[in-house]
Design brief:
Elements (H helix, E strand, L loop, with lengths): L11 H14 L4 E2 L8 H10 L17 H12 L3 E4 L2 E4 L1 H7 L2 H11 L22
Helix pairs in contact: 1-4, 1-5
Amino acid sequence: MPIPEGGDRHFQPAATALRWLLTRVGGQGIRLTAAGYLPPAVVTAAMDELRWRELWIGTCTREDTTAPVFALRETAAQLRLLRRYRGQLLLTKKGTALRDDPEALRRYLAASLPTPPWWASGRYATDAGSAAPS
């Protein structure tokens, strides 16, 4: 898949958010709730640390009502960076390899995604630079 016009710099906000999640999951994984969602503390941390809270309504404690966090996790799973196993969210081999290499993660996203996901657009991005194309 070709890299979009303007190079892969548009994927930096998405790579930053995904790297946050991969780092948070870490080698030990995260125990999911009984309903299969991220625990409230992780959802709140994502919204605060990625600076998405001021752009979202609600308490930002439940993944099923906090679309940016839900989309982030689903995208990571679709990209095969994370997997679910026995009630835990775990890194895949690819996720482990890319977690500590931000440049490789950004290139992987640029090659994998047709356009940056909506949660990585200028409205939700925390990095300096241009907003993702619409």
